[in-house]
Amino acid sequence: MKKRKIALGPGAASLILIVVVLSMCMLAVLTILSARNDENLSLRSTAMVSNYYRMSSAGEEKLAELDAVLVECAAEASDDTAYYEAVAEKLPEDMIFDGETEENHVYVTWYEKNVSQYPKLTELEEVLDTCAEDAMNEEDYINQVTKYLPDGMTIDADKKTVTWTEVVDEQEVPCTIQIQNYVEPQRYLWISTPFMVNEDKRILECTVEVCPLSESERFVWKAHRITVEEEAEEEENWDW
Amino acid sequence: MKDSHRANTLLLELLIVLLFFMLAATTIIELFATARQKSHTATIRTNAIVVAQNMADELYLSEDPVTVLNAYELTANETGWAGERDGYQINVTSEDIAKAGGTLRKMEISVVADEKVLFTLPCDKYIAGEATP
């Protein structure tokens, strides 16, 4: 019987190892990329949903403020005209009174924007905006930013970087940004990992109809919808 | 003699290869474990946001939130209501704040997995008091 010889010379095992390890590495990289994309997608989806409910809750609080005004005005007013006049006068800030509709209906509208989950960043953005408007030149801009820098932040004037710690989901996240030239519309660039901010500029439009004094309800919801700023500004006349 | 030397070299190579393979496998398995954890958290978050969103809408529309919370099999505790789902816990807190014209019902749904808060959904509703015409 002829004996079969298995030829596994020196180097073959190394070659097989290289192929196997490379394949495993590739598989691992693909898996981790896929998992990271899944995670980003779920985070984004969660952020969008949370933003809506946060805006909706803010809208309810504003409605409570408006209703307090309606109660106060209803107690003082003798007729509908006086009532509506008083409401228009005492309306909370940021609310729009519309009493010039054809059917003599009175509407009150307000808009809810996303509240930032990153308060320190928002504070810094405000400082950068204000200083950029007032600055005479780049040096003056950096000096002003240094002067009005929010508490807990440090600035490196030479590198034009600002560093601070933001608390996100009960975890401390170190943040670093680089300030851009004061004439640039984009005020800063992220050096550390950027936050996932809501970039779609969605706003919640809330409109209620203020009922006359004779009715059992003080207001009726008329609109509660997501829109974008440009659209909200354009649509002034509503056809209910 | 030549065969013996060749066998020794092969054995040494196999040992080195095995060692390197184990080292590489350890690192790669760690990567797989991280990926699995990320994927698991993403799945939980995605499932939980759908449930929480439905719950928030039902709570908003309902006049009796306790009925809705019971329907979701949440049980009352010291801080509010809580319940376990597939790998995560849903906590709901509620507070009624009296306002000049009615009551502001402040509710918050939070989802916790692996002792970490994944997200919170506020679900406030203003309930106007009766008007006196």
Write the layout of secondary structure elements.
The complex is a heterodimer of chains A (240) and B (133).
Chain A (H helix, E strand, L loop, with lengths): L11 H65 L3 H11 L4 E4 L7 E8 L5 H16 L3 H11 L5 E3 L4 E8 L2 E9 L8 E3 L11 E9 L8 E10 H6 L6
Chain B lengths: L1 H60 L3 H7 L3 E2 L4 E4 L4 E10 L3 E12 L2 E7 L2 E4 L5
Antiparallel strand pairs in B: 1-2, 2-3, 3-4, 4-5, 4-6
Protein architecture, described:
The complex is a heterodimer of chains A (240) and B (133). Chain A is α+β, with helices and mostly antiparallel strands. Chain A has helices at residues 12-76, 80-90, 119-134, 138-148, 229-234, and strands at 95-98, 106-113, 154-156, 161-168, 171-179, 188-190, 202-210, 219-228. Chain A contains five helices and eight strands; from the N terminus they run ααββααββββββα. Chain A is elongated, with a radius of gyration of 30 Å. Chain B is α+β, with helices and mostly antiparallel strands and 133 residues long. In chain B, strands 1, 2, 3, 4, 5 and 6 form a six-stranded antiparallel β-sheet that branches. The model of chain B has no long low-confidence stretch (mean pLDDT 90). The interface between A and B is large, with 52 and 51 residues.
